[in-house]
Amino acid sequence: MVEPANPGLSVGKQCRLLSISRSSFYYRPKGETALNLTLMRQIDEQFLETPFFGVRQMTWHLRNEGHPVNEKRIRRLMRLMSLMPIYQKPNTSKAAKGHKTYPYLLRGLQVGRPNQVWAADITYLPMRKGFLYLVAVIDWHTRKVLAWRISNTLEADFCVEALNEAIHRFGKPEIMNTDQGSQFTSFAWTDRLRRSGVRISMDGKGRFLDNIFVERLWRSLKYECVYLHAWETGSEAKAGIGKWVEFYNRKRPHSALGGRPPAVVYWLRKEETKPDQQEQKVA
Questions:
Q1: Dihedral sign, CA of 57, 61, 64, 67?
Q2: Closest CA relative to residue 95, chosen from 157, 202, 182, 206
Q3: Tens of pLDDT, residues 201-213
Q4: pTM of the entire structure?
Q5: How confident is the model at residue 91 (pLDDT cuts 50, 70, 90)?
Q6: Do 270 and 153 form a contact (C-beta atoms < 8 A)?
Q7: Contact between 132 and 237 (Cβ < 8 Å)
Q8: Residue 204: which of 182, 180, 221, 228 has the closest Cα?
Q9: CATH top-level class for 117-276?
Q10: 149 in helix, strand or coil?
Q11: Of the candidates 10, 90, 190, 236, which lies 20 to 30 Å from 253 by C-alpha distance?
């Protein structure tokens, strides 16, 4: 908004017109310290093992590992990472003020075909000198990753971009399931789904297991890819994630799919369900 090279208005005058302080324009965030980045990496690894660890348990765990940390620091870092323990408590994955939440629609539902239910979630990606966030949209039945994006902020835009790509490439789902994070309760996300005629489903507060298939995807991704590398830049992370997702979709055997890769089962099941859909239309 402020143009430093504007010949007609100085930076100070532009700041006054925008009602912001001049010092805030020149401020540049320093980022996290090397120690905090190390702690965030350890928090992330432990959270995959014990997703029920809240701030107090995570603080105790890190102290037992030799880190003299307090709850205030761990609370800030877990909030920064957007980690939510599975028990009910105030957390960063609750909807923002004014955002509508939706009921969980998958309880007791038999999911037996592609594009019946999709799920989306966000996870933290540690890097050598910082961190990023990753969102993925998957098909619930076949576990295929339909689209993904990385971002250095938790704004809703990168989530909507992934959703748009998934719908453009694979059609729309009947139901989309997410947690109650502000990205997924935002108008941009829910309006895109409503305009497409998609039913919206959201996990209960603190219900990590409601979106279990995405959580399993994160576990595989991090142990098979993320933790094996120390990416320096976002472009390196993007290339690494892209390579692993291609491997996961097309080559990695999946135990829930009888050893077949997700993409193979996705397209096979889509072909199998076409006649049923045509018969339903005729009927």
A1: negative
A2: 182
A3: 998 765 555 578 8
A4: 0.78
A5: very low
A6: no
A7: yes
A8: 180
A9: alpha beta
A10: strand
A11: 236
